[in-house]
Amino acid sequence: MGTGKKEKSRIQRQGKVTGDPKVKGENFYRSAKKIKALNVLKEGKAIRNKEGKVVKAASYQSRDVPTAVIEPNRRWFNNTRVISQDTLTSFREAIAEKDKDPYSVLLKSNKLPMSLIRDGPKDALKKHQAKMTIESEPFSQTFGPKAQRKRPKLSFNTIGDLTEHSEKSMDTYQARLEEIKLLSGASGYGGGLADDDVQEEDFSVATAKEAIFTKGQSKRIWNELYKVIDSSDVILHVIDARDPLGTRCRHVEKYLATEAPHKHLIFVLNKIDLVPSKTAAAWIRVLQKDHPTCAMRSSIKNPFGRGSLIDLLRQFSILHKDRKQISVGLVGYPNVGKSSIINALRGKPVAKVAPIPGETKVWQYVTLMRRIYLIDCPGIVPPNQNDTPQDLLLRGVVRVENVDNPEQYIPAVLNKVKPHHMERTYELKGWKDHIHFLEMLARKGGRLLKGGEPDVDGVAKMVLNDFMRGKIPWFTPAPEKEEGETDTMEGREGRYGEMSKKRKRDEDDSAPATTPASAGEDAKEEDPENFAGFDSDSDSEVEEAAEEKGEEKSTAEDMIPLDASSDEEEDGEEEGSDVEDDEEGSDLDIEGASELEESESEAEAAPAPPPKKQRRSRK
Ligand SMILES: Nc1nc2c(ncn2[C@@H]2O[C@H](COP(=O)(O)OP(=O)(O)OP(=O)(O)O)[C@@H](O)[C@H]2O)c(=O)[nH]1
After folding, report:
1. Which atom of ligand 1 is nearest to the CA of 270?
2. What is the pLDDT of residue 268?
3. Radius of gyration (C-alpha) of the chain in whole angstroms
4. Best substitution site from 341, 353, 362, 541 to test ligand 1's pocket, by max atoms within 8 Å of Cβ?
5. Nearest Cα to 326, choosing from 232, 224, 263?
6. 364 - beta bridge partners?
7. What is the dihedral of CA 213, 218, 222, 228, to 10 degrees?
8. 334 is in an annotated binding site
9. What is the Å distance from ligand 1's center to 486 Cα?
């Protein structure tokens, strides 16, 4: 016997005609619904009185709720797990420990009850209590003569007072705005800012700054940053090894921790060839407490740390196997070497590198491997009221040629660099103050103005450039070691580092070395394997020379605007990059945005992320 359909066709086939509905097949079995309906009929009809009114309703007509005990069952609450308080506590502790550890990654955190872990029982209780207070406080306690709640102190009682107050504060605000505009050089809007731009600026800073000291703070640059962060799965925060705290951008760290905790943040301590290896190691120790940290010397010919960084990125790409590719964004202060890292990783000049800040104008994509894309971001400077122009200048944020009275920053340079390093670098001795130093230097180099006056301004700019480009050795010592930490700064006296013996020997024997290569020798001496120093024809030197000659610097020849349709270009013939030999494949391409829509001078001190839909996303 088959199913209804089969049975029907069998009957038809055999030519049997049957009127018997009981034959197995269609309608043979009664459904549960039908059985229920039949049972209702069995239970009898309603009892009616003589007049035909219902005295006792039939069971199917009754509206009484039947008394029944339902056995409780955990399965009612779908997808729940019941665990004891102890298990919850130990789970909470274990996960919180993993969550804090920068070296472990919590994948699929959305499947874990993270609110239980993050808020903790006490916080949750407090929140609940606060809510309850608001909800349960009776009207009489809140308002009226017996009110217990404190009244807010308002300086006005009527709506008229309020209007007057707001008008007054608007007037003072405008007056203050005018005053700051005058002080900041944007007076009469002759500072090159359009009327609207000036309106947009946040002049809440306590001290007026020259416009050039707001570089890297414009709304456009911060929009670029948020675009890069949005599009990246891994963020490489590039830090200058000479001033790790100064070039550490805590704003980005905080933003990632609160807004995008699923993105991986890695510190890359760049330019380690310019600091002694022990200092680099000490800073790595400090930084890696917060996030995984890699050390880099970004040179195409002689890089350091390239292999381990590529390995790390590969691990992240394996971690996100489900994705077609991962994007790695490089962010950080201007001139810390973001583009140089990209070039070092690729093993050839693909991104524009220059010894001047603000060379990268817009974000650009570079393919490292088939599954790993790199995104270069323009240098950003988090606005900080405590940062003086001097701090910003010495961090390399500002282009020295644009600075007025550069000699005013020389005392800070002399303060940061050990005197004998200055003496060796410039072969000078016995200056009384910074002006005397500049005059001596100008006379020595024959940099004289009309009438034999020393060109103090020009020499001061040269010294500032030498300071920023690593020609003058300097670095910030790492904080004191904690108990149990082995690496020390022994043998180094004072606040700032000593030159290595080898460098001293070299310089005794020959002319003073004033190149980054020589600064790199410090590290080389201490750890010859790791810190081989830049070659004499290193990037910075080549570029500097090119800059002096007015030549074009190394750039990506084939910069394609981001919006351009060619998303992936095959470029498998390049040499010198073992990245290309990656088993993943070798489709290498570069994309860059060439158009620069807005002027960078539009400084805005509030780098809040724009709404996501406004950011230009590549995805
Ligand atoms: N000595 C040394 N110099 C480096 C290193 N990395 C970069 N530089 C130099 O630092 C300067 C700035 O490098 P860039 O790669 O242009 O820096 P950036 O962060 O991209 O700068 P922006 O375009 O302003 O964002 C260049 O002169 C590089 O040669 C390094 O590891 N060691």
Report:
1. 31
2. 94
3. 37
4. 353
5. 232
6. 376, 592
7. -90
8. yes
9. 31
| SS3 at position 268 | strand
What is the separation of C-alpha 616 from the centre of its chain, rounded to a whole number of angstroms? 17
Burial class for 596, CB neighbours closer than 10 Å (0-12, 13-18, 19+): exposed
335 is in an annotated binding site: yes
pLDDT of residue 386: 74
400 is in an annotated binding site: no
The Å distance, Cα 499 to ligand 1 centre, comes to 22
Point out the ligand 1 atom lying closest to the alpha carbon of residue 539.
Answer: 29
Cα(354) to centroid(ligand 1), Å? 7
* 339 assigned to a ligand binding site: yes
* Residue to probe by mutation, ligand 1, list 236, 247, 335, most atoms within 8 Å of CB: 335
pLDDT score recorded for residue 309: 93
| The pLDDT value given to residue 416 | 87
Mutation probe of ligand 1 site: the residue of 268, 275, 362, 539 with most atoms within 8 A of C-beta: 539
Domains of the chain and CATH, by start = 91-142 (no CATH), 159-211 (no CATH), 219-384+558-571+578-604 (3.40.50.300)
Count of positions (residues) in the chain? 619
Separation between Cα atoms, residue 264 and residue 256, nearest integer Å: 9
In eight-state DSSP terms, residue 554 is P
Nearest residue by C-alpha to atom 13 in ligand 1:
337
Contacts of 369 (CB under 8 A, 6+ apart): 314, 317, 579, 582, 584, 585, 586
Ligand 1 center–CA 251 separation, angstroms: 22
| Ligand 1 probe mutation, 352, 471, 540, most atoms within 8 A of CB | 540
How far is residue 287's CA from residue 295's CA, in Å, rounded to a whole number?
11
- Output the ligand 1 site: residues, CB below 6 A: 270-271, 273-274, 296-298, 334-340, 353-355, 357-360, 378-379, 470, 516, 534, 539-540, 543
Phi-psi region of 6 (alpha: psi -120 to 50; beta: other; left: phi over 0): alpha
pLDDT at 558: 31
pLDDT means per 10 residues, the chain with 619 residues, are 73 67 65 83 85 84 76 73 81 81 75 69 67 70 78 78 88 82 51 40 51 75 90 93 91 89 92 90 90 91 91 91 90 92 92 82 88 92 79 85 86 88 87 88 86 87 90 86 51 35 40 34 36 35 38 33 32 38 36 37 46 47
pLDDT in the model for residue 77: 73
Output the pLDDT for position 338: 92
What does the pLDDT read at residue 372?
93
Separation between Cα atoms, residue 470 and residue 337, nearest integer Å: 13
